[in-house]
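On clarity, I found the account of how folds are encoded harder to follow than it need be. What matters is that the chain and its backbone geometry are given together, residue for residue. I therefore recommend that a typical entry be quoted early in the introduction. An entry of this sort, consisting of the sequence and the corresponding backbone structure tokens, reads as follows:
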Amino acid sequence: MATHVSGAGRGQGRAAAGVSPWVTGWTAAAAVLMVFGGIMAIFAGIAAIANDNVFIVNDSFVYAFNLTGWGWVHMILGVVITIAGVALFTGAPWARVTGVVLAGLSMIANFVWLPYAPVWSIVLIVMDGFIIWALCSPRREEAT
């Protein structure tokens, strides 16, 4: 009974030890955004691979790439990001590091994708920035 009064519940010991399978707060938000962004990258990749006419190509940009090739890049990156987002729900520390790296790669890929889907690329770049911030911010369970 005294342990409940002092606030030392049965779940705090596991959270302090870092073995809790549940994530909270910003990590969960980053995981949801990674899964959502990964699935949308898969769809964009499939659209670019299946039919290059889906995207309007403007020839006035400094760089121009093959849409089918970038479709494969987006599809593969989307699959890996989705898997890492699902792994974040387990609370694995490697998933946080992998999530930061993949969000950075996604930012670069979406920057290159700007001529083909400018609004969506900007939205995903902002989402990736939030994911990096959320995964790098200090954890409450680590401070205890």
